[in-house]
Sequence to fold (379 residues):
Amino acid sequence: MEPHHNPPPSIAFHHHHDGGAGGACVNCGGPTAFPSPPPDPNPNYIPIRAPAVNLPPANNREIIMRTPVPQSQRVVPLTPPYHFQTPVKKIHNQNDIVQFQSSPTCQNFLGFVVLLSESIRSHKLSDPCHESPVVLAIVSVLETLSVYVDEIPLAPQSSRYGNLAYRTWHERMSCDAESFLLQFLPPDLHSATVELVPYFTDSFGNSSRIDYGTGHETNFAAWLYCLARLGVVKEEDYQALVSRVFVNYLDLMRKLQVTYCLEPAGSHGVWGLDDYHFLPFIFGSSQLIDHKYMKPKSIHNKDILENFANEYLYLSCIVFIMKVKKGVFAEHSPMLDDISGVPNWNKVNSGLLKMYKIEVLQKVPIMQHFLFGSIIQWQ
Fold:
């Protein structure tokens, strides 16, 4: 799958056209110029939005094609005595990425993502699956966070991105995070919250920049991986982690994106599938492997999208993109349009897994925020 080198498409509902009257849009009356986010106080911070950082190398297609398809790997359990600690950032440059990529930690985490993908293979979201008390508790937490959105009204402002009320939501979520986790952690793991809470709170976007992207989504997968490492969730839970937990997480993030106009954390239109997400395309393509009727080109069939988006993550992603982006699909989502020409879902799934490894887990601007402690160890 070849990443497009076009400039990232706008995620606006329409293009703003300056009417010349004080910078007002002739279409909607809104301002055509918006203030930039405040500079990050950390001078070593590499802005995720910097296009020069995100532009893929010319040989990017070859790199992805040469990369072996990531394989599933059972999660290595953490055994007592535990030494939980506040996780910290370790990745600062490309050398750190190289070290991370060759580590057992990276291989095991990526293997966990592959296991999640395999757990949902050829399954609809509504298919019966093992729903443990822990899974149900996590779903309940996500539903509670969705209610918080309903309870926190928008702040009056004219900015296209970044409603300040999101910071109120994020603060409330962060304050309640530990109590959420204590609802389902066994007593001997209560001290693990010092390590689990940072992954959890980083899963829902950045409160200072009011943005969200694949790095935050990866944090949510890392949080689930931590629970697997601790034995809190087990392999029989994996299908429900996708079809119940991740689906609720995705619904919550879409609600946050639309309600508070979160900025995409990165110029992902240059190479990516979506302005915000990656994992639902991996899980969604796995769902459709060996489907009798639906092929990758089926994303262009409106009847299929309308009838099956509630059962298949990949289709629901396409439907959501079409709601928030106007215009020709091949222009605003060139990568997804290219993928629709791949002959079968098995190739789509393996290609996306390779792309996730290269374009997310090997990118300094994304992984500079990733945390390491005693559960996810820096090796």
Summary: Residues 99 and 379 are 8 Å apart (CA to CA). The chain has a mean pLDDT of 86. The beta strands are 88-89, 211-212, 263-264, 371-372.
